[in-house]
Amino acid sequence: MTPSKPIDETQSRRWRLVLGASAEPELGGAGPAADAAMDRALSALYNADEQSAAEKRSAGLGGSAPKVARWLGDIRTYFPSTVVEVLQRDAVQRLDLTQLLLEPELLEAVEPDVHLVGTLLSLNRAMPETTRETARTVVEKVVREIERRIAARTVAAVSGALNRAARMSRPRLRDIDWDRTIRRNLAHYLPEHRTVVPERLVGYGRKARAVHRDVVLAIDQSGSMASSVVYASVFGAVLASMRSLRTSLVVFDTAVVDLTDRLADPVDVLFGTQLGGGTDINRAIAYCGQLITRPADTLFVLISDLYEGGIRDEMLRRIAAMRESGVQVVVLLALSDDGAPAYDHANAAALAGLGVPAFACTPDSFPDLLAVALDRGDVQAWAHANAGKS
């Protein structure tokens, strides 16, 4: 029998951190001071159920804000930010530390991320005034980071789509785009005259202050949609900053709240939401229908996992009526980086039968999706082509 290959020191250290104290007989102690500190931080989170009462008092996170604050400081010292975000999320879920997030000194020690913002928004109504400003600072930091990530691409993609839609087929002489006109009419080149006889002139889209498209965003604010609420609010604010669009944003559970007047600041939008509760998609669609005054020039984006607590058949009828009136309808099961969401497959299939595909989309892909939808392109084909990316 061939003897097993010995584990090198690096592998041994990694396995020791993964397996915890129970692996000491085979792999030895935690090693250097930094490894020991990482081991304590991981054990406090993942081995809490195995600790004795004395260990929990001395090393566990328990319900003590000072202990949690120290632990947050430790993990930020020894782990990269991507790992810190995972550890924080696990701590909130596994150890039920949600209430501790209402303490300002603890919030100041947390690494802000989208999931933390979602947790804070779910506590919005219970948040004391002493915590609200700190929470707002945390939320604002995440929002500004998302804006840096998506704003420029969104404006460029949407502007491109609107400019394409605005190009004129019978432009005046000064508005002719000669380069595009020649390329469009190369089939009509006359060799004997060495010239192109254009059958169709292509003009530049004249920049005007007119609103070219209306965009209505309806966002499901049930607890499972937290990340989508954050991203959609930021996108809504970016779109609202474009004068060529008229953007409306509503959030809903069993009630509908119109947050359009807060779109100047996505942080205000987010603090106007209340995550959790039931879902009445039908009621939300009915309200959004009242906002649509130019169906042929309107894009309606519903962001929901489609678990309907309202009247399902009426919801489907309203979507069908929107489509028939000329509204471009897009349904997103999620707008986040969280992967494939749980959703109501029956409702998604029913929407597909109406010609409205329902699919998840990442924030990085959403600007391109907006461009396709505003250009009245084939959204379903785009969704299939980008299935691996979104």
CATH architecture of the domain at 150-163 and 210-387: 3-Layer(aba) Sandwich
Q: What general form does the structure show?
A: globular
Percentage of β-strand residues: 5-15%
What class, by secondary structure content?
alpha/beta
Share in helix: 40-55%
InterPro entries: LolB, Uncharacterised_CoxE, VWF_A, vWFA_dom_sf
Pfam families: VWA_CoxE (PF05762)
Domain VWFA: 212-371
Protein name: VWA domain containing CoxE-like protein
Can you lay out the helices and strands and say which pair or pack?
Blueprint: H1 9-19, H2 24-27, H3 33-46, H4 53-58, H5 65-78, H6 81-95, H7 104-107, H8 114-122, H9 129-166, H10 178-184, E1 189-190, E2 195-196, E3 213-220, H11 226-240, E4 245-252, E5 256-258, H12 266-271, H13 281-291, E6 298-303, H14 312-325, E7 328-335, H15 345-353, E8 358-361, H16 366-374, H17 379-385
Parallel strand pairs: 3-4, 3-6, 6-7, 7-8
Antiparallel strand pairs: 1-2, 4-5
Helix pairs in contact: 3-5, 8-9, 8-11, 9-11, 9-16, 13-14
